[in-house]
Amino acid sequence: MLFDYLSLSWHSIRNRSLRSWLTILGVVIGVTAIVTLISIGQGIQDSILNEFDKVGYNTVTVLPGNFDTGRGGFGNTGADTSSYLNKSVINEVEGVKTSAAIRSEDLQIVSEGLEGQAFLRVTGMSPAVLSDFEAYFDGFPISQGERFSYESEESGVVIGDEIARELGVSPGDIIRIEGKEFTVSGLLGTDEEGNDGQFNFYGDLNNGLFIPLSALENLYGRKGNASLILAKVFEDAEVSEVADEIERAYSADDTAATTITTEEISNRVNSALGTIQIALAGIAAISLLVGGIGVMNTMYTAVLERTREIGVMKAVGAKNGQILGLFLTESGLLGLVGGAIGTLVGVGLSILAGRFISQALSAPFTPSFGPGLLIGAIAFSFVLGSISGVLPARQASRLQPVEALRYE
Questions:
Q1: pTM of the model
Q2: DSSP 392-403
Q3: Cα(128)–Cα(86) distance, rounded to whole angstroms?
Q4: Cα(67)–Cα(86) distance, rounded to whole angstroms?
Q5: What is the pLDDT of residues 293-321, one digit of tens each?
Q6: Rg (CA), the chain
């Protein structure tokens, strides 16, 4: 019986090929939009979550000042809201395995390739930053030269590719920071492992200047201060509890501090991306709904055109349920074909869009095609087509044989 339904439905679609393919096109457009938008959105989400995995979920970021992280942690409202943190305080907190200090200042830069002088943000990093928190900087990728040495007496600086071009320097050249000479140790860019610094938790590395924290302290003073501290928590400790303890420790030191765990950042990013994906899928679903209306319109037209045919089938013994099943199969088949084609086109467009995104970001990007998305898109199209054909099919099944045979 099912084979008969499919055979008759496909024969009807082929007999009215232009109208049928225009109807299918409406479904194709809707499914293509949904598959493309969701796969790209999921690809972005997967890329970001991969970076969180690299950093580790036992990492806590400590910032000066009061911010609402939504964790409901310890309040520091009565503490000094300085823009610096005492980096020694965190070492006294139970549960902290290791920590690293980062500090940024706007300093005067002079180089031979630069006309005059410029004030640029210089970041000082303690040795633990690159030994324990390298993933925080996307591997701190060096494209030319090497990293600066903390053991060397000479002061080295690592510069982002874009800033290096503006300053007109390359590894081995000398620049002056606040009057002190620094040798350019290396340039940040894409390394052998494919890291390029585009996505990291710190910022755009290609526009950064990095020196040892001790060198920055010698230039600017305020030794022992940090503008950001990273901490790793012991594996058996509760990260959120340790984060609250860190805030309490700084409050006791009369300093306002806010902690953010990697899990909190991940949850917020997931929530934001999820909302965006739902919104985009909703917009795309509107076009799919229009395609469903097109299927309904086509089926109503088919019922009118085949009224006499329905009358003949009923006259020779066809039951209402059989007529209903025939037209539901035809409408479902329109949705199924449109869903299958739309899914294939959506996959192709997503791959093409992924290449453009990779070129724009200068970073690898791959859309995510889960089996649930592909199978779900096709199945949903079939269900939508079938539902769109319910009313026309009911109308066809309720036609009286005598009246149907009289229809001109």
A1: 0.68
A2: HHHHHHT--HHH
A3: 16
A4: 18
A5: 888 888 888 877 777 777 777 777 778 77
A6: 32
